């Protein structure tokens, strides 16, 4: 692959603009407060540049800062995201990443595309795993297949073992064998259809998975809704228009419902006020709740949801969110690496998410240890939702749980050994296992 022209590099652009203005290198260096030798390194693309120095250079050179860095920052962000997912805690080489992005935009685009493809495949794998473990329609289809196999095996065993079987009975068993085989064929075809979408392609996404992908792509933070004011409808429409899968009517309807709930949270507790408050409280939900209690009207679940929607920035810890109704099925989730949450069925009965369903309005906190040994703190509360109920009507109750990694100082005596849900949990000796 041919190298990109030097003018695509930030340093080269600075040098060309300086020469076009007839400025000496020393004069420019003095004007922005750096040494000529340091500016020489920048112009030869041996030093990264950003922040205040970039703005000063742009001012002296009489250009917009974006004209010096256009096309570089986006590629750097994509490469850093890919490195973080692939390498984890292993630091990626970043000293000359801007040069890599500028010189090899094609390879940068390839890495970004592979990263996006990997994320999509991981989502499909996660969806398939959940469906194999929990989907009731799939479980019923599998049960029917196994029942047909058992019937065929029993009939065949009788025909093989009973040598002196009455001809009339033998004919009846042959007919049963034929009917069971026909039934097995139909049920196997139906089981296959559980994994195939109409047409040539395969798609395992249900409406809730499509909506979850939309929230994941946005980092569970929608800036246009946060700042929409009275134009909430237009902001929601803009989000739906740019999101994949919204041509599907059930997915679009579900997405609009959840975005309107998000907009209501943003109206009640604006992020412009909440984010600084959470930062000052060290992103500790208990301290955040104490500080935001008045603004939130005492709504614990609102504070937990706003914590999960904090925009990504330095100091904001990884967060997961799970919301369920009284049946235990998850209505909404924000996935957290290392903490598995099933999509279709209920999670672990030991989670605070389910404990609070028996104590409406009473917040709870626990430290959870996964079967792999990772520890997480979980804050949960169950509250009635919607308009006040009339006498004799059962209120609709929703439980909300925020999850964050626990520090090493956690007291082992306070830890609850749990899992992702009984269907796929490896803890055989758990008393709560069903």
List the helices and strands in order. HHHHHHHHHHHHHHHHHEEHEEEE
Distance between the ends: 58 Å
Q: What is the structural class?
A: alpha+beta
Helical content class: 40-55%
Q: Based on the coordinates given, report the CATH architecture of the domain at 318-434.
A: 2-Layer Sandwich
What does the main sheet amount to?
6 strands, mixed
Strand order of the largest sheet: 2-1-5-4-3-6
Weakly predicted, low-confidence segments: 1-7, 197-204
What is the arithmetic mean of pLDDT? 80
- Provide the CATH topology of the domain at 318-434: Beta-Lactamase
InterPro entries: Cro/C1-type_HTH (IPR001387), Lambda_DNA-bd_dom_sf (IPR010982), ScfR_C (IPR018653), TransReg_Diox_bact_type (IPR050807)
Domain HTH cro/C1-type: 14-68
Organism: Gymnodinialimonas phycosphaerae
Keywords: DNA-binding
Topology:
Elements lengths: L9 H12 L3 H8 L3 H8 L7 H11 L3 H5 L3 H15 L9 H7 L1 H30 L1 H26 L5 H27 L13 H11 L5 H4 L5 H11 L6 H20 L2 H10 L4 H8 L7 H9 L11 E6 L4 E5 L17 H4 L8 E6 L5 E10 L12 E9 L9 E3 L17
Parallel strand pairs: 3-6
Antiparallel strand pairs: 1-2, 1-5, 3-4, 4-5
Summarize the structure.
InterPro entries: Cro/C1-type_HTH, Lambda_DNA-bd_dom_sf, ScfR_C, TransReg_Diox_bact_type. With 434 residues, the protein is an alpha+beta fold.
Model description:
There is one protein chain. This protein is of the alpha+beta class and 434 residues long. Among the domains are: 98 residues, lambda repressor-like DNA-binding domains (434 Repressor (Amino-terminal Domain), Orthogonal Bundle); 59 residues; 117 residues, Beta-Lactamase (2-Layer Sandwich), CATH 3.30.450. It is built from 18 helices and 6 strands. The protein has a 6-stranded mixed β-sheet with strand order 2-1-5-4-3-6. Strand 3 and strand 4 form a beta hairpin. The longest helix is centred in the N-terminal third of the chain and has 30 residues. The chain is extended and about 110 Å long.
């Amino acid at each position: 692959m041919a190298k990109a022209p030097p003018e695509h590099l930030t340093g080269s652009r600075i040098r060309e603009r300086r020469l076009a203005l007839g400025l000496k290198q020393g004069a420019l260096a003095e004007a922005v407060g750096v040494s000529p030798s340091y500016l020489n390194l920048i112009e030869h693309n041996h030093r990264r540049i950003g922040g205040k120095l970039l703005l000063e250079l742009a001012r002296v050179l009489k250009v917009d800062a974006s004209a010096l860095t256009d096309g570089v920052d986006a590629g750097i962000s994509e490469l850093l995201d890919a490195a973080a997912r692939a390498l984890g805690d292993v630091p990626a080489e970043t000293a000359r990443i801007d040069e890599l992005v500028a010189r090899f935009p094609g390879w940068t685009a390839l890495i970004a595309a592979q990263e996006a493809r990997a994320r999509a495949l991981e989502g499909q794998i996660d969806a398939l795993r959940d469906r194999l473990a929990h989907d009731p329609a799939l479980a019923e289809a599998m049960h029917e297949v196994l029942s047909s196999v058992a019937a065929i095996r029993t009939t065949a065993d009788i025909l093989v073992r009973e040598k002196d079987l009455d001809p009339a009975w033998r004919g009846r068993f042959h007919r049963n064998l034929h009917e069971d085989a026909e039934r097995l064929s139909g049920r196997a075809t139906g089981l296959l259809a559980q994994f195939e979408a109409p047409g040539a392609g395969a798609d395992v996404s249900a409406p809730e998975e499509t909506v979850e992908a939309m929230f994941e792509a946005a980092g569970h933070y929608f800036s246009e809704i946060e700042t929409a004011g009275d134009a909430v409808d237009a902001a929601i429409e803009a989000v739906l228009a740019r999101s994949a899968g919204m041509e599907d009517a059930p997915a679009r309807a579900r997405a609009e419902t959840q975005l309107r709930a998000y907009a209501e949270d943003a109206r009640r507790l604006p992020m412009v006020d909440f984010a600084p408050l959470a930062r000052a409280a060290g992103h500790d939900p208990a301290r955040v709740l104490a500080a935001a209690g008045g603004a939130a009207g005492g709504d614990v679940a609102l504070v937990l949801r706003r914590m999960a929607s904090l925009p990504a920035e330095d100091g904001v810890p990884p967060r997961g969110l799970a919301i369920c109704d009284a049946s235990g099925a998850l209505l909404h989730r924000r996935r957290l690496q290392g903490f598995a949450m099933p999509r279709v069925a209920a999670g672990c009965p030991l989670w605070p998410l389910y404990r609070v369903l028996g104590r409406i309005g009473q917040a709870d906190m626990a430290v959870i240890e996964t079967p792999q040994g990772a520890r997480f703190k979980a804050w949960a509360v169950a509250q009635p939702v919607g308009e006040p109920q009339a006498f004799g009507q059962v209120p609709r109750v929703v439980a909300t749980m925020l999850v964050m990694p626990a520090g090493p100082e956690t007291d082992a005596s306070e830890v609850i050994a749990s899992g992702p849900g009984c269907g796929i949990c490896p803890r055989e000796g758990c008393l709560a296992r069903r």
